[in-house]
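Moderator note: this is an archived Q&A kept for reference. The question asked for a predicted structure of one protein chain; the sequence and the answer are reproduced below.
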Amino acid sequence: MRPFEYVRATDAASATAAMSAMPQAKYLAGGSNLLDLMKEDVERPTRLVDITRLPLRDITRSRAGLSIGALATNTETANHPLVRENYPLLTQAIVAGASGQLRNMATNGGNLLQRTRCNYFYDTSMPCNKREAGSGCGAREGLNKIGAILGWSEACVATYPGDMATALYALDAKV
């Protein structure tokens, strides 16, 4: 992992200011995907802006259904009474998608924004259009058992890893 600067944001203004001051900055909440990518040298942020203290954890009833905060952890979401009672599919998807340890750290926002788990994406010596547009897709002609069967393109056969997004789509959620 490369060196980076750590900044803890206390509000939205300080978070955006810290990000805009350094082009290679990344937001950090649960970090379960970002830190893996940093360890593999796929992501190389020069600054991490910790947004865990921003007020985006609430899960509340709204006119349209539920409003679920991006910084609520997957555990908080799966165990919330409003989610369990009204959207059990979402609870099931979250619980099936990761271990308890990961669910305790991972946030809803990070779950939805996580990057592919394709081995070629993680291997920086291989071409990958998701990492570097126009470089090619090593998985297309390589070992790609975890690649897409349906819905792939000429540019990429990687799949999206999120279980939560699939449940939200099935529930016709607005994200």
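Archived answer notes: The beta strands are 5-8, 25-28, 47-50, 59-62, 65-68.
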